[in-house]
User: What shape does this take?
Amino acid sequence: MLDLWPWDGDVNEARAALSAGRVLAIPTESSYGLAVDPRSASGVEAIYRLKERERGKPLPVVVANLEQAIDLGVEPNEAIRLAEAHWPAPLTVVAPLRSGVSVPAAAGGDTLAVRVPDHDRLRALLQALGHPLTATSANRSGDPPACGLADLEPILGDSGALAVGGEQTPGGLASTVVSWSSAGLRVLRRGRFEF
Assistant: This one.
């Protein structure tokens, strides 16, 4: 059975769980996401195992604010500046990492997908933790995302993961994903956010 961390719980318990290599299941605007510190290679590896996902696919990250993204190594570009005007929102930006910065969640790449989620309690948790979290959908690759505790149980039941909040999420479309190039803004995935 999944352990539950309530929103009003001691944030040190969530911090300790992450430090011990446990995965958090966090509610987002649409479904639950699997969360670890994106700077933790062992945490990122735990998510690949749980999702049965091929290595080398980067994991998206949620941040409390633009400052957390910059602290992680994200280089603000035109897409970030555009997104910042709309954040918090289900709008994910694939942005470049500063030269020489390596983040395990980026899976060896030089970009990272980031967003400020439109979920007040999740942003408050990110602020309290003092760092971003990964937020890849809580499911095995190819399966529908988990929207509640009953959906999480078959995926995470024996993993030692900690479910945050415990609420039912609304489901539906995931975040819209965009990037920026010399040709301008490019929509990589149409989702919940509409320009």
